[in-house]
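Throughout our pipeline, every protein is held as a single compact record rather than as scattered files. Nothing more is needed to write down the fold, since each code stands for a local backbone conformation. For reference, a complete record is included directly beneath this paragraph.
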Amino acid sequence: MARLKTIFRCQACGHSASKPMGQCLGCSEWNTMAEEVVETRPIGLADSAAEARGQRTSFSSAVTALKDANETPEKRTPVGIAELDRLFGGGVVPGQVILLAGPPGIGKSTLMLQAAAKLAEKG
């Protein structure tokens, strides 16, 4: 069941907004936003959530079953602190983001400074 929705589209660049604006956020032109009524489908009827929002992705990838996925081990760099290396699965992976959380004053910054010093010693 399609629903009608009002959008405001820039006549200069095509940028759309849900509310009327004097200046287009896409191209910064003034007084180019025109009201349009478009038809929308509920997400369940669309092929994807992105399509339901009117967006298209520029890439696609095939779905692979987890049992068929190739697991390539990442190259890990040991930190040099035995317990940290154990927690990190043998070391840190280049480009990895690690969230270190804890109450104030527990030593998070000190631990990371020690880890940075150990990694700097290795070069």
In short: The chain has two domains: 3-52, 82-122. Residues 79 and 116 are 8 Å apart (CA to CA). The helical segments are 49-52, 82-87, 108-122.
